[in-house]
Design a protein that fits this description.
Number of helices: 12
Order of helices and strands: EHEHEEEHEHEHEEEHEHEHEHEEHHH
Low-confidence stretches: 1-52
Shape: globular
Mean pLDDT: 83
Number of strands: 15
Strand content: 15-25%
Helix content: 25-40%
Structural class: alpha/beta
Length: 314
Amino acid sequence: MVNHHDDEPLVSGRGVSRRDLLRMGGIAGLALPAAGLLAACGSSPSTSSTTASSAGDPLLAKVRKAGVINIGLANDPPASIINPNGTVSGLGPVVVEKIMKKLGVPKVKGEVATFGELIPGLQAGRWDMIGGVISVTKARCAVVLYSDPFQYNGLEIAYFPDAVSPAPKTIADVVSRGLTAGFNSGSAYIAYCQSKGMSASKVVQFPDTPSLLAALQEKRIQVVVSDTGSLTLTAQQVKQYPFHHVDYPKDGPFICGALAFRPSDKVFAEAFGKEFTALKQSGEFAKISKEFDSPPFPKNLAPLTAKQACSRVS
């Protein structure tokens, strides 16, 4: 077993699996398609969900009548995944599917977007909610309602040793050395890195995680700055992208990810939140998280609410 101190970054190659690295880190992993439908068999709304009257909630009434809810999400495995047949999966969408069945909505339709497009698309009515896990930030907390956290992450710096040596240990190190950094388009970490002094000329954005990883491998960028959840790779990806990484650098922010709703859909968000709490209490959420390589919540963070998360993030 590999051990590291809380005040030291974890630097690793691929000798240890991503899943093991996340579980050793002391912080649970997160959250960044063509449109598709999650296959869903109809089921009756749960007793608790019937208390959320669609008459008093325009969004719930609309999606119950349509039999489908549209969710915005980024192509960011394993938090949100595109299946070969065009359907979507991943931690966020699967949880949304289970909850919406309990609320009387049998189908979930996914609409692809970059992280930077998710909130504007929500505000413009392109989708009913953000169903792919996105990072909670102070700026976003001011314009959306978040669910309680789905994941807890640490920042991660990924690189190939033949392109960057010695290994960068902190964001300050990346900035001071003038390394070109890749980000998911619209990532919350762009502003964070720029607040640490990163020049706009050193920021390169990519539409999704697969294209970001390809750019790192092809040496079009020197490092990737993301979170441990977005860089939790499938077994196939680990073989394809054997990069090294620094997990939880000292100057990284507190990171958690959640789903998001329009402030005007507060009643719907509360109904969804009630079902999410029940899913966590039953142990089903933990099973889904494990399926998508997202480790259990740390005990001290498990009860954190959306409001409390917003008070802690940058």
